[in-house]
């Protein structure tokens, strides 16, 4: 899909460069025609901010040049709203993030089949992260929960977008790991406070997922004093 988008953008760029549009016509073509062609499939993608910038820069530069601006005009002003002195062009990263939020919230509220699937994906990502804090709620609140060890997916893309404007989604019905008894601890909560190494967190989390555990109580005896031997030796065969 990324290659197809690049091809489409190159074609749009060629069309722009060979067109003879006025400034207002060029802006209308950007917002109402060209950008809409690119926007349609964006909500289903998981491209990083850097990848989207690489896609959009040639496209935006062509439009700027055709509208009488320098092609290297500061991007902060290019994408800033007109009421703040900017040009007001739409950015693909922002457009994708807003559409993803719209789809996620609307389908979950409707409780349709797609909404149920989205809840499953959200809970699966929460399970993979292994943390007690809902992953879409205040993602900027705790610097120790960067969750860099989670593979990029649709939910993490939404989480990254929320972090750009301190956004938050409250979904009380979503599953999250909880302590099972007094003095119990969520394993990944503690580890995220202990280290920021992506490699260490990824390896420990892989072991945790294999053992199918989330808290200290899952791997200790009933008194919580000793780790049970099968979790140390790996002989518990949880997948059988």
Residue windows where pLDDT falls under 50 for at least 5 positions = none
Reported for the largest beta sheet, the result is: none
What's the total helix number?
10
* Separation, N- and C-terminal Cα atoms: 38 Å
Note the run of SSEs as H and E.
Answer: HHHHHHHHHH
Overall geometry comes to: elongated
What integer is the average pLDDT? 89
Number of E strands: 0
- The helix content, as a percent range, equals 40-55%
Q: Specify the structural class.
A: mainly alpha
Rg result: 23 Å
Strand percent estimate: under 5%
Question: What does the model show?
Answer:
The protein has helices at 2-17, 23-39, 49-66, 75-78, 92-110, 113-129, 154-163, 187-194, 198-211, 229-233. The chain has 240 residues and is mostly helical. The longest helix has 19 residues, at 92-110.
């Amino acid at each position: 899909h990324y290659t197809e988008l690049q091809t489409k953008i190159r074609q749009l760029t060629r069309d722009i460069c060979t067109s003879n549009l006025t400034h207002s016509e060029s802006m209308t073509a950007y917002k109402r025609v060209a950008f809409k062609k690119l926007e349609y499939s964006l909500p289903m993608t998981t491209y990083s901010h850097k990848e989207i910038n690489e896609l959009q820069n040639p496209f935006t530069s062509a439009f700027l040049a055709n509208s009488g601006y320098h092609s290297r005009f500061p991007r902060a002003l290019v994408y800033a709203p007109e009421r703040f002195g900017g040009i007001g062009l739409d950015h693909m990263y922002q457009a994708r993030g807003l559409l993803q939020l719209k789809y996620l919230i609307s389908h979950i509220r409707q409780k349709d089949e797609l909404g149920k699937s989205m809840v499953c994906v959200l809970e699966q990502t929460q399970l993979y992260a292994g943390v007690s804090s809902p992953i879409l709620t205040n993602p900027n609140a705790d610097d120790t929960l960067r969750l860099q060890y989670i593979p990029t997916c649709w939910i993490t893309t939404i989480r990254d977008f929320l972090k750009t404007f301190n956004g938050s989604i409250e979904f009380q019905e979503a599953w999250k790991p909880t302590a099972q008894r007094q003095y119990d601890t969520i394993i990944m909560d503690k580890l995220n406070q202990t280290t920021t190494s992506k490699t260490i967190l990824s390896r420990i989390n892989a072991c945790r997922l294999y053992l199918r555990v989330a808290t200290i109580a899952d791997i200790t005896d009933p008194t919580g004093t000793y780790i049970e031997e099968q979790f140390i030796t790996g002989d518990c065969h949880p997948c059988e």
